Amino acid sequence: MAEFTRQRGKRQEDGGLGSVLDLLLANARLVLGVSGAAVLAIATLAVKRLIDRATSPRDEDDPKAEQKTVEESWQDLALIKATPKTPKKQRREDLSEPLLSPAQPPAPGEAREPRVCSAPPETPRVEASPPRCLMLQEKLLSHYRSRLAVPEAQASLAPQLARSICTQLQNFLRSKFPELPFGSLFLSGPLLDGLGALAADHIHLMLPVVLDATLWSLIPGEDTVVRNPQYWLIKRTDLEYFPRGRSPWDRFIVGRYLSSNALSETLHKMLVASINWPAIGSLLGSVIHPVVASQELKLEVKHDQVELSITLFPVVEMEDKVLLAAPPEGLVENLWLESFYRAEVSKVKELDAGDSGARQHCLCILNGICKSHPALHKLSGSPLTHVVLHLSATSSDWAEESLADRFQQVLEELVGYLEKGVLPSYFNHKINLFGELLEEEIDEMGFTLYRAISEPDLLLKEK
């Protein structure tokens, strides 16, 4: 009974509110005129939608309910933003009578003459401003030159420092672990590959782990408890015929699998406790500190002209897969993350070379914007690259003159993927690149980008 009374009271309140809104709209035309009534109607509709969703009971068991609410919220935002603005001053041609000065009343025969113009009007106000896409194009290029271009001195010094540290680390590994067949260290990252370095402040150091293919095999992550196709297990095979100890990497086995965690922990202890970084830093004119608290294998380098962060990634290449020792957060161990970075860079450069496109330029701008934006920083890197690759399959005009159009189109595509909560990998459609994002993060990203579609300046402002 109490529940029935509560529901009934709720319906009465909703009905009373609806009556007030209907009465207001019915009299709006008399008070505000046609344009004012249109403004009020659209705004009232948006507000009424919000009230209906707030007062309607939610189906907690429906997994699509939350996504539907997010999409409707973005649509309501567009509805409100599309409301025409009432002009502050009425233009002369909109009046039924011409505007006249009180000091000079018109002659009786001159009342209708102001509507006829004997001479052509001056340059129309609309043509005085450049097209919107041209304005956006200029702003994007200006934003790139002023904020995203890495100074030449830093762009050359940072890789030079990283290569010197790479050489020192390679020599130490060979003396410390001569039994482990590490490959030759090499550098990677946006600064070297040109896909979105905001500053010369971060470089990846890749450490190849060379495995005997006859003793190891790959297990897809979708066949494991994580059910994630982007993660893999590296399994030790034929232990009956090739017992433990046959492979130098058997010391890092956990449950018959090569443990990315065990290998990273060994390398972390080496970086923190075994290497004389003060001596190496003095030799290179820098101060080098390993980051003790980080789960990543990270070095911080300070030089007079640049501050650099170097992250070390053990990497396994097997069966055309590139796997990084970067397991997901949580209790799951031993997993290896499949990296598409090399394929991404190669594909983007191949497409640009084929049609003289500006994909790299567009990605550099997008990555710089997302990295510096508090709500969008998790979109930088692979997600943006995969959106551009998907878009390249349907949009062939990537000339620099179309940069503004393609930029706008990438934003629209991103909003579409965020609405679904799914961004399929360009190289493996089973992989959802949004899979590890929280719903709150997706909502905030979608709301920010939805606004930016109509107002790109929101992304170009200083943060």
UniProtKB/TrEMBL annotation:
Keyword Cytoplasm: no
GO biological process: mitochondrion organization; positive regulation of mitochondrial fission
Region listing for Disordered, in residue ranges: 55-129
Pfam families xrefs: Mab-21_C, MID51-like_C
Domain (Mitochondrial dynamics protein MID51-like C-terminal) ranges: 156-344
Subcellular location: Mitochondrion outer membrane
InterPro entries: Mab-21_HhH/H2TH-like, MAB21L/cGLR, MID49/MID51, MID51-like_C
Listed GO CC annotations: mitochondrial outer membrane
Chain ranges of the Mab-21-like HhH/H2TH-like domain: 359-445
Lipid metabolism listed as a keyword: no
Swiss-Prot/TrEMBL keywords: Membrane, Mitochondrion, Mitochondrion outer membrane, Transmembrane, Transmembrane helix
Major subcellular location class: mitochondrion
Annotated Gene3D superfamilies: 1.10.1410.40, 3.30.460.90
Membrane topology: Single-pass membrane protein
PANTHER family with a match to the protein in the record: MITOCHONDRIAL DYNAMICS PROTEIN MID49, MITOCHONDRIAL DYNAMICS PROTEINS 49/51 FAMILY MEMBER
Full protein name: MID49 protein
